[in-house]
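User: For my dataset I need records formatted as: sequence, then structure tokens, nothing else. Please produce one.
Assistant:
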Amino acid sequence: MGVVVLVTGVARHLGARFAAEVRRRPGVDLVVGVDVQPPGLPPEEPAGPAAPYRFHQLDLRRPVLSRVLAEHQVDTVVHLSVSATGLGSTNRSAVKESNVIGTMQLLGACQKAPGVRRLVVKSTTGVYGSAPRDPAVFSERMQPKDPPGGGFAKDAAEVEGYVRGFARRRPDVAVTVLRFANIVGPNADTPLSEYFALPVLPTVLGYDPRLQFVHEDDAVAVLCRAAGEPAPGTVNTGTFNVAGEGVLLLSQCARRLGRPMLPLLLPAVSWMAALARQTRLVDVSPEQLRLLTHGRVVDTARLRDTLGYRPAFSTPEAFADFAAAGGPGLLPPERLAAATDRLTALLGPEGAAPAGPSAGPSAGPSAGPPAVPNRPRRPRS
């Protein structure tokens, strides 16, 4: 790993965790944190020996990062400030400027810094989009049939385009792009975690999308793997999908959370999502609504075979840890299981109601209706 590591986005949970973890790595002399706002909590102090930490409060959209890179002689840059939500502002234009313009300024500063040798950029699997004509599984080489038309996914796609241009201009810099699935965990602070925190989950009628998740511990571990020197037999440059193995349906997620689902027509769900954004109750963007309609699954073979990292949490295990950290829903799974057991006991092993106390020995399953005496037929005229 580089001697001096600069981390953007340290005011967020993932950036703060990564900065604390990378300070414990051998060979790291200094970690420099950068963000537009100071962290809400003091930076976590690692146990045992750790590299010193310096924080610079600055806006990436302003060309002042070159001074920080030169002052600390940074050789590894980890860009984590590309996010779906902004710090201190919910204005969509401000978030887009922070993501795209901030990345352009960062890349410009890195291009002018001859000491920079490694660049790691956090992206999202949202660059593949979510559409009914999508393939069952996306690999890193695939292009979306319907590219994202706006929102965070489009920001990430533009950021990746600028990163590819930087890699061509600076072939001496090892560039890694990590496309993360939805990050979950006990402390995850993402728009999807806010959606799952609702007491009732609005869903699109007739759709049960497939979803993938990555645990926050795996996200930090993958970032550390990408920011360091590659292990023998592995390569940590290029583009990698990052997700836990396996998939979950949205209905399975709701049951594991104990949240009842409210299926609605797509126009009604879109109207509710727009109202929730205006009232700042929850940020359900149009791209997230498409994900909750059509779903998305990515191939992680390159993460395991090339980068050499196998996530410690599968998708179901990561979501289970996220669900355990939240409060019980209106329909806790254990209560549903108990109700199902009682209903099974009442219906009997074959699903038929047991006979009442007044039923005689002939009132079994083979007993038919009472016999009707035969009546003489009238002769036909």
